[in-house]
Design a protein that fits this description.
Blueprint lengths: L2 H9 L8 H9 L4 E4 L6 H11 L3 E5 L3 H13 L4 E4 L5 H12 L5 E4 L1 H4 L4 H8 L1 E6 L22 H4 L5 E5 L4 H11 L6 E3 L7 E7 L3 H10 L5 E5 L3 H13 L4 E4 L5 H12 L5 E4 L12 E6 L6 H8 L9 E7 L1 H13 L4 H19 L4 H8 L12 H4 L4 E3 L1 H13 L6 H9 L4 H6 L15 H14 L3 E3 L5 E3 L2 H7 L6 E3 L4 H14 L4 H24 L3 H4 L2 H10 L4 H4 L7 H21 L9 H13 L4 H8 L3 H13 L12 H13 L9 H6 L6 H18 L1
Parallel strand pairs: 1-6, 1-7, 2-4, 2-5, 3-4, 5-6, 8-13, 9-11, 9-12, 10-11, 12-13
Antiparallel strand pairs: 14-17, 15-16
Length: about 725
């Protein structure tokens, strides 16, 4: 079988995504390669399909147990023999896997780097002989990567132990320095690097002010019921507090962080995957091992430290290609905290400088007033060439205004305090707040005290951050994050430079704009019907998954369910056209899903659902099999008896087991056949002469049935 046939047979897809086919050819030709492909871009197919096609065993090196488990379950569900070897297995279970490897029963073996280099595993695999080695999450090998894992450094030995086995390294995020390091560690030619587009147009991007975060989260997730999502927090304590707050509001949420014992973490993760718990509040410890395709939203409670982490974390939403929402809460306090964490770390100064630069890029993204996707994609040296139309800046571009005088007020206050105030104190001075800190420092006596009292505190916070991003002043991180003047500052103060920033929009105004946008694009009735069926199929999927002990998306992903809800397939041929439905998936689940779709169609038969001709015939047939008469079916479906009769005749012609003679009185049958003979009727001609022969006392449905029976009898006798 060729790679296209395997793609359809095992995975249910008709065509490859960009670069997948080329990468597969590299693997088949025993050529090493580094693959940079965004989360949800289809990295796994790049080694899974060669593994099926090549003789022998493919070893996949993966960092997390949960990730291995999900991958193996998904492969088995598609009819591919795979297993994993890690500490979650008992010694007996491990022996069973090794025997399966020896006997050649497996195509893919997933293994952690620690296990690969422990005991006699290397020797065992060398003696066995391998067809391909895939290194998943390859950025973990680089100390310049955002998720460096020391145990991955051992993989530099792979070429020494397996000189003739092609190595395929794969990751979703890696900047230039990380890419070079991966290639160097794994002895991959830097010319053999495949970089897919980093653009994920199905992800909406939004940044909200980091105030009253729980209230904003409540509003966001209330509008997306029955969906799964992840909230990322900076600290372990925050995950627990946020989860408690959400549970108190009536949501089902669990905290997840590295401080929890392994059994608890595993249980929480399992509950999320099986959709028992729809919301996870986690540190960055959560996510890499999650292969859940239908995460519909990601919220960052705190700002990540770099664009790579942010991109990878939001990439865990919408892996099925369907729309997903991402929200980042941003406050200047997050920047300060992140900067302090870098400064207090034990990493080398060179790496601290790099981390500072990456944090600055993340801040620029959060404070931007231009298309956020362009900023995000440009970080990975890609230009989408246009604004995305799916971020908050594109959807609701903020109006610009001349802020020169406003900037001069803020800068004057900085000057009058001898450049010794940070954000909060500066806002207090401008608004004329007589709190203890201000009074003690004597700032209430400076000329600029209270010159900005006409603006609320949150407005000043917004404007000052914009001015900072504009470059109107600097921050001295090593002096308690106080503001310092620069050359631009003096140009503004002297009236030599005009400043334009965006008008402040409150969270309430922003929400109102979003609601108006939704109102303009309200779903059609057909979408509502589809969504109802989708929900029925989702519940069915969950029940099947629970019975089988697998995550729901292993049965079918949301894309497949959505397509079923739209196309309503009720035959094997129709069902196999659904994306993600391969041979094995149909064998396992086809019949039960078709039954659910039919039940839905029957329940909605009075609502004039527009069905394809072949489908409407089959619906009639299913109702007939349930024991309904032609007249009853006609009444329920809103058709004439003649139309229903024609449906059944068509199904008979297509091979359905229908005794048409039982649908018509014997006297009527004989009378119509006699009339047809008398009129020298030829099959295929209009039935009007026969109808007129009976002076309208014999309906077209009976005539059509009688002629079909007569024709069948004549064909049989020939």
């Amino acid at each position: 079988m060729n790679k296209n046939s395997i793609l359809k047979k095992y995975f249910g897809y008709n065509e490859f995504r960009p670069l997948q086919s080329e990468i597969i050819e590299y693997a088949l030709n025993k050529t090493d390669a580094l693959v940079i492909m965004p989360t949800g871009g289809g990295k796994s197919f790049c080694y899974q399909i060669p593994a099926i096609m090549l003789p022998g065993l493919t070893v996949v090196i993966s960092p997390l147990i949960a990730l291995m488990k999900d991958q193996v379950e998904g492969l088995k569900a598609n009819g591919v023999q795979a297993a994993f070897l890690n500490s979650s297995l008992t010694p007996e279970e491990q022996d069973k896997v090794l025997w399966a490897v020896k006997l050649g029963e497996l195509k893919l073996l997933y293994i952690a780097p620690e296990r690969l280099f422990s005991g006699n595993t290397l020797t065992f695999l060398q003696e066995l002989g391998l067809s391909l080695i895939a290194v998943d999450e390859a950025h973990c090998i680089s100390s310049w990567g955002h998720d460096f894992r020391p145990e991955y450094r051992q993989l530099a030995q792979l070429r020494e132990h397996f000189p003739d086995v092609p190595i395929l390294a794969l990751t979703a995020t890696a900047d230039k320095v990380t890419r070079r390091d991966i290639c160097n560690q794994l002895s991959i030619d830097e010319e053999n690097v495949f970089i897919s587009s980093f653009d994920r147009p199905n992800l909406s991007l939004e940044v909200l002010p980091g105030r009253q975060r729980i209230g904003q989260i409540q509003q966001i997730i209330s509008k997306m019921p029955n969906t799964s999502g992840i909230i990322y927090c900076l600290s372990r304590k925050s995950t627990e507090n946020v989860a408690d707050d959400l549970n108190a509001l009536g949501f089902k949420a669990k905290a997840y962080h590295a401080g929890m014992d392994a059994a608890t973490r595993s249980k929480v993760q399992e509950m999320f995957i099986t959709e028992e718990i729809p919301i996870i509040v986690a540190t960055i410890a959560f996510g890499m091992g999650i292969d859940k395709s239908n995460v519909r939203w990601i919220i960052h409670y705190n700002m990540p430290g770099n664009v790579e982490s942010f991109y990878q974390e939001i990439g865990r939403a919408g892996r099925d290609g369907l729309p997903a929402k991402t929200v980042l809460f941003y406050s200047f306090a997050d920047v300060i905290q992140r900067n302090r964490m870098i400064r207090d770390s034990e990493m080398p100064e060179e790496q601290k400088e790099l981390m500072d630069a990456k944090l600055e890029r993340m801040r620029q993204y959060a404070e931007a007033n231009i298309c956020r996707r362009r900023i995000l994609i440009s970080y990975f040296n890609e230009d989408i060439g246009k604004n995305c139309g799916n971020c908050d800046v594109c959807k609701n571009p903020r109006r610009q205004f001349d802020a020169t005088i406003l900037a001069q007020k803020a800068l004057s206050a900085i000057v009058r305090t001898n450049e010794k105030v940070a954000l909060t104190n500066l806002v207090d001075i401008l608004r004329g707040s007589r709190n203890q800190t201000i009074m003690k420092a004597g700032y209430d006596q400076i000329p600029t005290f209270g010159v900005g009292k006409d603006l609320r505190a949150e407005v000043w916070y917004d404007y000052i951050l914009q001015l900072l991003n504009y470059g109107a002043f600097d921050i001295a991180y090593d002096e308690g994050h106080v503001f310092k003047l620069n050359e631009v500052s003096w140009q503004i103060l002297k009236g030599q430079r005009k400043v334009e920033i965006s008008e402040y929009i409150s969270p309430a105004e922003r929400l109102a704009e979003q609601e108006e946008e939704k109102r303009k694009t309200s779903p059609r009735k057909s979408d509502v019907i589809r969504n109802e069926l989708f929900e029925n199929l989702r519940i069915l999927r969950k029940h099947i998954a629970e019975a089988m002990g697998v995550p729901p998306y292993v049965v079918f992903n949301d894309v497949s369910l959505s397509e079923m809800a739209q196309k309503k397939p009720i035959s094997e041929a129709q069902f196999k056209t659904i994306s993600g439905v391969g041979q094995e998936k149909f064998r396992r689940y086809g019949e039960v899903f078709i039954k659910e779709i039919l039940e839905f169609i029957k329940s909605k038969s009075d609502e004039k659902i527009n069905l394809p001709k072949g489908l409407t015939y089959e619906v009639t047939y299913e109702l007939f099999k349930d024991g309904m008469s032609i007249e009853e079916i006609a009444q329920q479906r809103g058709f004439t008896a003649g139309t229903i009769a024609s449906h059944l005749i068509k199904m008979k012609e297509n091979g359905a087991e229908i005794d048409l003679s039982k649908l018509i009185d014997a006297w009527d049958l004989n009378a119509i056949v006699d009339a047809a003979k008398e009129l020298k009727y030829l099959f295929g001609e209009p039935m009007k002469p026969i109808f007129e022969h009976f002076e309208g006392n014999m309906d077209y449905g009976k005539i059509r049935l009688a002629l079909a029976i007569w024709q069948s009898e004549m064909n049989t006798s020939q």
